[in-house]
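[recover] target loaded
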């Protein structure tokens, strides 16, 4: 294990250890999270998903940071993307059960909001995951790749955050073989459908944190796609 790997591991431990060691800090986190969900979404995704991309960078290049990685710009972008994910989770977790009732599953809302697990709750959670990852995820993933390319084009500097993105140019330059053939066609049905089914089986206050933790996995998956 290299020193950089040890440092990365220590950062992960430093982020999570206080919540296990201090009941007061964990209570504060739950209270603040309940009162300021969007702010916490920004922070969770800004930190955890960026760490995931650093891990992906380590896998694909051998280094956690490259000259064009843009640590701070990525954290800011991930923060805003995380707020969008939180919004999508609220919309689909509320709307999908209502749509299922509209289509004939009369107890969908009740089953989904119940504290106890059941097969009905599982099917509704799966439906929410499939709906969100089919409708929202491709747009989100494409925007994510575009922002990554935009940051890299500005050498990883903060200038990327205040410079308009040439959307048509960035869109045309995407590696659609990897984006469609791997990210969309494989990771969405084979990973994100089941992963977010678990997410939506969790209590509502834990879903965004779990989704942000999955951002670490996303960084690894994108690194695999890059290598391919």
């Amino acid at each position: 294990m290299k020193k950089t790997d040890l440092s990365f591991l220590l950062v992960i431990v430093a982020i999570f250890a206080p919540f296990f060691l201090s009941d007061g800090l964990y209570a504060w986190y739950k209270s603040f999270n309940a009162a300021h969900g969007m702010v916490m979404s920004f922070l969770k995704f800004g930190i955890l998903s960026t760490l995931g991309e650093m891990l992906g960078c380590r896998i694909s290049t051998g280094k956690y940071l490259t000259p064009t990685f843009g640590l701070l710009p990525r954290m800011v972008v991930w923060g805003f993307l995380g707020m969008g994910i939180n919004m999508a989770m609220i919309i689909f977790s509320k709307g999908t059960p209502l749509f299922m009732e509209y289509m004939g599953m009369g107890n969908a809302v009740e089953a989904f909001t119940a504290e106890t697990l059941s097969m009905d709750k599982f099917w509704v959670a799966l439906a929410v995951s499939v709906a969100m990852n089919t409708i929202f995820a491709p747009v989100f993933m494409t925007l994510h790749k575009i922002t990554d390319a935009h940051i890299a084009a500005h050498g990883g500097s903060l200038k990327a955050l205040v410079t308009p993105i040439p959307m048509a140019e960035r869109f045309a330059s995407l590696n659609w073989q990897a984006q469609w053939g791997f990210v969309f066609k494989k990771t969405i049905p084979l990973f994100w459908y089941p992963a977010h089914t678990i997410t939506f089986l969790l209590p509502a206050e834990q879903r965004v944190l779990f989704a942000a933790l999955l951002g670490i996995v996303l960084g690894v998956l994108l690194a695999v796609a890059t290598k391919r």
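[recover] notes: The radius of gyration is 19 Å.
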